[in-house]
Amino acid sequence: MLSRSIQQAIRHLPSQRTCRYSSVATLKECWNQIDRHNTEINAFISLNDRTLLEKKAVESDHRRSNGTLQSTIDGTTIAIKDNICTSFLPTTCASNMLKDFTSPYDATVVQLLNEAGSLIMGKTNMDEFGMGSTNVHSAFGPVIHPDRSDDIQRSPGGSSGGSAASVAMDMCTAALGSDTGGSVRMPASYCGLVGFKPSYGRCSRHGLISYANSLDTIGILTKDVKSCANVYDIIDKYDEKDPTSIPNELRTELNENDAQLSLQFKNDLNGLVVGVPQEFYVDSLSSEVLTSWRDGIKRLQSLGAKIVSVSIPSVPLALPAYYIIALAEASSNLSRYDGVKYGHRVPDHKLLYDETRSSGFGDEVKKRILLGTHVLTAGTYDTLFLPAQSARRVIQKEFNQVFKQPNLLYSKSKTGQAHVLLVPSATSRAPQLNQLNQGVKAYIDDVMTLPANLAGLPAITVPSTHSIGLQLLGQYGYDNFVLRIAEIMTNGAGLKNGNTL
Asked: Which ranges carry the Amidase domain (predicted)?
């Protein structure tokens, strides 16, 4: 996925005679892009030590020349969303509440990336505590979409907008984000990238500062599917520190089934059945999105896939169920920021708790905490929270009934007719910053992505026509299969695709 300038730099290196890729050249170009554009697009909140990364890049190139690479991503430049803990850089969640916080430990995914030899460039901007879909709710200011070809400032999407912008602007090769309701896949759609949300429990959440525990998932942003798969292969590990991590016994069974199905598809999609859920055809879809969706269907058909109409009747309940559950969990999770334990604190004030939280949290976070607290009160817990959880279970069951592959969390019986589902990733192209939706409309933008979070399913956004992404959803645990189908779909003519690592 090297940019043209990176490729040109590599050709002039002596090491290019024996080595196709140079970490030193890539790192240099990434720094150049950061120096030129970060002030403008505001993608990075903090940056790693350049001298240290240059040393690591030289060591990586040395390993490459000796054939002793530590992994497929050894020497790859990677950015980390600023709600994922790092001991060597601050972790702020783009909030004044944590503006002076540096974690005493690395998140498990960060530790795995370091052990694999990757070059962590820095921490990226985001909506505060992951609460937003436009990346304007940040104590460090909004992230600006890298593409300014029409001289209009657009949103890169959120909440992982800084991660998306950093990859789109060639400031790094890949970036980690978090996806609670589409926070990786929507920015990927807006920025013309690949954005992957693995199955819930596949990648460790240890060190990810929680927004909504039962929905949060570490995600990956890259310019092509192969690069995304390489990063996923490193962080797809069991972690005893994460109580939601898929246990090894189930993970082994899922991996075997996943690999067996993936092997059936190599260069085309003959035999693949793709479901198109009718409930995702909502009134808010723009004409550009509809055209892109049709183009994606034609692309899959040209590769040999069979397209079938499927139904997930309870999907219209996903949006209200999601926001009830997510905000309730957020209210509980963020109660720890009380001005006593850690984080921001208003000193010597009689109303310590009230003043600390009032000045530490931004308006959007305070709004969601208040709504979540209301959901959990005695008067509404039974009438809102419990029905939302029931709707979530129904949605999960209906997804299971659509897929050919069984969900091993519930049954080993095959019931459905589709291998994967194809839906848009967003209802429109990237919105203009001066025309962002306000009020309730701002929450509707997640309608295409959040069902996968409620059901815990793997989902990937791939670039399509009209600067809009399309989304492939798979059965729980079949992550490599979803990546495989996405790679075949994006290879060759038809859809945009970058170069591999």
From this structure: 27-483
List, for the chain, all residue ranges whose pLDDT scores fall below the cut of 70. Answer: 1-20, 349, 437-439, 492-501
**Cα(433)–Cα(421) distance, rounded to whole angstroms?**
31
Full DSSP string of 411-471 = -S----SBSEEEEES-SSSPPBGGG---TTHHHHGGGGTHHHHHHT--EEEEE-GGG-EEE
In whole angstroms, give the CA distance from residue 272 to residue 264. Answer: 9
Which candidate, 95, 117, 96, 114, places its Cα nearest to that of 105?
Answer: 114
The upper half-sphere exposure of residue 78, i.e. CA atoms within 13 Å in the direction of its Cβ, equals 31
- Cα Rg, the chain, nearest whole Å: 22
Domain boundaries, the chain: 4-256
CA distance 241 to 236: 14
Active site residues: 81, 159, 183
Query: Any residues with CB less than 8 A from the CB of 298 and at least 6 apart, and which?
Result: none
CATH class of 4-256: alpha beta
Provide CB contacts within 8 A for 446, sequence distance 6+: 133, 181, 182, 186, 319, 322
What pLDDT, on the 0 to 100 scale, is given for residue 442?
A: 76
* pTM, full prediction: 0.93
Q: Where are the beta strands (DSSP E) in 278-416?
A: 306-310
